[in-house]
Amino acid sequence: MTTHTLTNPKDNGKSSSGHRVSVLVPLPFPGPLDYLSHEALSPGELVAVPLGKREVVGCVWEATTHLPPDFQRPVGKTVPLSRLRTIGHKLEVQPLPPSLRHFIDWVAAYTLTPPGLVLAMAMRVHLGDTPKPALGWVRTQKPEEKIRITPSRRAVLDAASHIPMTTSDLAEASSTSSAVVRGLATAGLLEQVVISASSPFHPPNPDYGTPRLSEEQEEVSKKLTNLVEAHHFDVLLLEGVTGSGKTEVYFEAIAACLRQQKQVLVLLPEIALSTQWTDRFARRFGVEPAIWHSDLGAKRRRETWHAVAKGEAQVVVGARSALFLPFETLGLIIVDEEHESAFKQEEGVMYHGRDMAIVRGRLVNAPVILVSATPSLETLANVESGRYQHELLTSRHGGATMPSVSLVDMKENSPERGFFLSPKLCTAIDETLANGEQAMLFLNRRGYAPLTLCRACGYRAQCPNCSAWLVEHRARGVLTCHHCGHIERIPKECPQCHAENSLVPIGPGIERITEEAKQRFLDAKILVMSSDTLASPSATAEAIRQIADEEVNLIIGTQIVAKGWHFPKLTLVGVVDADLGLGGGDLRAAERTVQLLHQVAGRAGRAAHAGQVYLQSYVGEHPVMKALIANDFQSFMEQEAAQRRPSFWPPYGRLAALIISAATAEAADALAKEIALYAPEREGVQILGPAPAPLAVLRGRHRRRLLLRTMRGIAVQPILRDWLKDIKVKGTTKIEIDIDPISFL
Ligand SMILES: Nc1ncnc2c1ncn2[C@@H]1O[C@H](COP(=O)(O)OP(=O)(O)OP(=O)(O)O)[C@@H](O)[C@H]1O
Ligand SMILES: [Zn+2]
Predict the structure, then answer these.
(1) How far apart are CA 412 and CA 316, in angstroms?
(2) Which listed ligand is nearest to 601 at the C-alpha?
(3) Cα torsion for 108, 113, 119, 122, to the nearest 10°?
(4) Which CATH class name applies to 14-122?
(5) Residues 374 and 595 sit within 8 Å (Cβ to Cβ)
(6) Which of 114-123, 163-172, 499-508, 546-555 is the least confident region?
(7) pLDDT digits (tens, 9 = 90+) for 119-139
(8) Distance CA 391, CA 379 (A)
(9) 215, 241, 247, 285: which to mutate for ligand 1, most atoms within 8 A of CB?
């Protein structure tokens, strides 16, 4: 028996016994539920409501008339008032602001997710009621003349001042009792006021550490400030070569926004690695910003959430989930490294943080600044069509030059058998270290080796749950699956033919490169940076310190080392396998490889000494290598555009992926076939697949993929809704929809 139902937006029933109120609960219902309320409630207020045998916290919701027609949710049946359950109680917290509620509806409609699951992201904090504010006594203006003043009353009056004190503090300070204090209150000489708790978030000072900008920086920073001062939605791409001072320049936009008394949100792709960023912020604004990411402790989360809602946290730097914070007066959003695929959430609500930042900006009518040295083709296409403004920083700060990038042709310059560093790269490292400078080796692969092979029978160690090889992590003595986390000891003999000592590692991971570097560079002080060695923000901070203090001179790392670090002594970057990201036939493989390698290369030579970059590659003629060597990103992106445009690949068309998964291959195939049978047929719409996913088995589930591609003018959401509405999904079979997919695994 259900006593709640989906809301019908047309029905605002009222009766003498109460109002009909719709409440969105953080659960996967298709829309808000109806309840009965005896008090007037406004949209945004948080309420505890009964649901089955439990009580959950939900948010009073309105009909979603602000969504485009394509996005409107289906309307449920209306249940008579008499059968509705009654709302529990209202929480004494700030209501969710309208712009956040609209955003939640928008994200839900765009990603085809139940809105309650999106609301859940906005409430991922233990809300409960805010603690009752403490009350304290202050002296009133009333004269003492007509009142009898005993010695103990005298003592209390002497102890009281204009700073509020609690009853017990005041009684203690005057060596009297709380009865005396209350007596004075009755007599009108003391009054009770709220003691305001001091916020842990101190206001950043826009004039604290103002930099001296170069002429070019100054010009661009003016454009950014103007944008902020215009107080309306607009998007601007801030493109600038690595080390040109993009951060420095967008700090000026933050300062402008602070001067307007408005809040700022800065999104970084990987917030756990942001220590250098927050340090710089503190040097510029005198205080640390508020930080938001999934690893925050519960208490800090709650404090931050409330401080954002009250406008006390003025600058928040966070991961994509910070988009769902209840900003009171958001005046600017900045997305740093906008091209990063880490902005895409691949589980649960699958949304792209950069794209949704733009929606958020539009809904609060605030400008959005996208920042990158290698902007995505999506963003460049928006610049070209005139939708986004574009500002450029063309040179490195302080006269530093761009690093010179050269190719190491691995066919001609091959390392010895079983080794991976070419003689040419090794010589360069020797020279760099001899000059007292730092070098970095980059390989985007954790562990020792990506594949373990039996020399005797050809057996390959595979994950029992996934269609993937097990990766050897020699330091831990295990083979592990990077997709599902499966882990096993490295076997002593081949599990298939039982030959002993026949298992060999194939290919390198950074552990193996580290082993080679230790043998090859005997005096080097090596630091390894990967998610395995830098498990916590403090470990990362310590690694950064070691580099800054020159306690190490050879850094070996995965993509962590590519991030926006600034290491003045680092002059050489060696990319161990520049071809690594090119396989796999992913739509954006080439674009992503250019972006990643350009960013890694950009770590070299950022200060006094010029930088050098070596790309070890077997495909020197590849457009990716040519673009990197010529430092010509623009022609490369033009070629990419020319390839994607004619067949409507994004950003010139739209894409949605359907991922079907089931416990057996047969069940997955059956559902995939059924879905394909109902595939829409119309002009400008194309269906690719079904086909086994590249990761055909993941965590024991068999996966099939379909791809829906449409011309730009055709929205995929209504097509998908219509297509899938009559498909029955049985048992543990599942269909996931990924709008604007980034991963094709
Ligand atoms: N006007 C300036 N005054 C003083 N220092 C500056 C100025 N502009 C840039 N810098 C310094 O130059 C270095 C590079 O600047 P910044 O990190 O802002 O560049 P970026 O374009 O964001 O780089 P990347 O894209 O590689 O992350 C930093 O140490 C920064 O403090
Ligand atoms: Zn696995």
Answers:
(1) 50
(2) 1
(3) -80
(4) alpha beta
(5) yes
(6) 163-172
(7) 999 988 766 545 556 788 888
(8) 13
(9) 247
* Average pLDDT, integer, range 161-171: 81
Angle between helices 623-630 and 589-601 (to 10 degrees): 30
The pLDDT assigned to 352 comes to 97
- Ligand 1 pocket check: which of 248, 597, 599 to mutate, most ligand atoms within 8 Å of Cβ? 248
Q: Does domain 400-445+508-641 have CATH number 3.40.50.300?
A: yes
- In this prediction, residue 74 carries a pLDDT of 62
Looking at the DSSP bridge assignments, the partners of residue 697 are: 702
CATH number for domain 653-739, candidates 3.30.70.600, 3.40.50.2300, 3.40.50.300, 3.40.50.2020 = 3.30.70.600
Pocket of ligand 1 (CB under 6 A): 211-214, 217, 240, 242-248, 373, 397, 564, 566, 602
Beta-bridge partners for 528: 556
Mean pLDDT along residues 517-540: 89
Please report which ligand is nearest the Cα atom of 470: 2
Which backbone phi and psi does 728 adopt, to 5 degrees? Answer: -95, 125
> Is the bond leading into 505 cis (omega within 30 degrees of zero)?
no
Give me the architecture of the 215-398 domain, per CATH. 3-Layer(aba) Sandwich (3.40)
Average pLDDT over residues 434-442: 95
Cα 363 to ligand 2 centre (Å): 41
Look up residue 500 and give its DSSP letter.
B
Provide the 8-state DSSP code for 394.
-
Helix (H) or strand (E) holding 479: strand 478-480
Angle (CA) 661-665-669 rounded to 5° is 75
Contacts of range 627-636, beta carbons closer than 8 Å, 24 or more positions apart: 627/594, 628/405, 628/578, 628/594, 628/597, 628/598, 628/601, 629/405, 629/406, 629/407, 631/402, 631/405, 633/374, 633/594, 633/598, 636/594
- Counting from 1 in the atom list of ligand 1, the atom nearest the Cα of 400 is 12
Which carries the bigger pLDDT value, residue 592 or residue 531?
A: 592
Task: State ipTM.
Answer: 0.96
Contact 422, 428 (CB under 8 A): no
Identical fold, 215-398 and 400-445+508-641: yes
Instruction: Return the ∠ at Cα 438 (arms to 433 and 441), rounded to 5°.
Output: 100
Please work out, in degrees rounded to the nearest 5, the angle formed at the alpha carbon of residue 272 by the alpha carbons of 268 and 275.
85
- pTM, to two decimals: 0.86
* Ligand 1: centre distance to CA 383 (Å): 24
The residue type of 730 is K
- Distance of alpha carbon 47 from alpha carbon 61, whole angstroms: 11
- The ligand with the least distance to the CA atom of 464 is 2
Average pLDDT, whole number, for the chain? Answer: 89
Mean pLDDT to the nearest integer, 571-599:
91
CA distance 30 to 159: 60
pLDDT, tens only, 535-573: 777 888 899 899 999 999 999 999 888 877 888 899 999
Q: Check pLDDT > 70 for residue 197.
A: no
- Domain segments of the chain: what residues? 14-122, 135-194, 215-398, 400-445+508-641, 653-739
Taking alpha carbons only, the member of 13, 454, 456 closest to residue 469 is 454
β pairing state of 526-529 and 554-557: parallel
- Residue of 397, 570, 596, 597 best suited for mutating to test ligand 1, as the one with most atoms within 8 Å of CB: 397
39 pLDDT above the threshold of 60 = yes
Q: Give percent of the chain above pLDDT 90.
A: 62
pLDDT at 83 over 90: no
